[in-house]
Amino acid sequence: MGSNEKAGGSIHNFIFSENNQHIKEETERILNERSLSEPLLITGAQGTGKSYLLSGLCAAYQRRYGQDAACKISGADFLGTMLEAIRRDGLGELADHYKRYELILIDDVDDLAGRRIALESFARLAGQLGEGSMIVMTAAGQIDTERLGFWMGTRIRQLPLYPLGKELFLEMMDSKFVSAGVKLSRKQREFLYVRSNKSVRSFDGVYNKILLNCKVNGNYKLSMNDLILYTKP
After folding, report:
1. For residue 176, what are the CA distances in angstroms to 91, 121, 215?
2. What is the 3-state secondary structure (H, E, C) of 53-76?
3. Which DSSP string do the residues of 128-195 spell out, in sequence order?
4. How far is 44 from 49, CA to CA, in rounded Å?
């Protein structure tokens, strides 16, 4: 799995820094033991890579146990689906749909935090799902885990995801580009580090934009001018 094997992790292209070993241990337990006794909430500032982590965990779990073993959905999309189910009296059907997954990953649950009734309804539904599925959630802001856990009928464990240091960020960038057939110089990586606002989330968008241009132009050997052109806002 490239750089991730070197970094001791289990999710392709995700670098677990020294201060994120607690997150690494949890993802390994989920992947290897298929075990998570309580819902897990991963918190961190915007750009620390929470969505990137969940996407990688979902993909790794699906590769190992099948496409129908895991799903990832945003808090906003989950809310929309839930409200639609409430309108047609189909919450039971919605719960049955999600119960077929072993692992349910819900990104940005703080999108619901400002809407108390929505958050409570979400938590009660998630509590039903948690009876037979592992649930991992992320939030950028503060979440009252005690109240959320009360509604879910279980204790929620909260773990912080800390930002990558610059060198690990550059290593993660390099690993992704090398796996796609693009070799960058240190100067080019430094440029993309700044262009991405030192954010894992922003870098993902920059990376996809560059790769799209590489495919369109059939050129994977990029000059600095190419990078400037491909990453224009």
Report:
1. 40, 39, 15
2. HHHHHHHHHHHHHCHHHEEEEEHH
3. HHTTTSEEEEEESS---HHHHHHHHTS--EEEE-PPPPHHHHHHHHHHHHHHTT----HHHHHHHHHH
4. 8
Say which DSSP state 107 is in. Answer: E
d(CA 68, CA 62): 7
Predicted TM-score of the model (pTM): 0.76
48-90 pLDDT tens trace? 889 889 988 999 999 999 999 999 999 888 888 888 888 888 8
Can you read off the two tokens belonging to residue 2? 């490239």
Judge whether 55 and 72 are in contact, CB under 8 Å.
yes
CA 9 to chain centre: 15
Tell me how far CA of residue 189 lies from CA of 195, 205, 227, in angstroms. Answer: 10, 15, 10
CA distance 102 to 167: 35
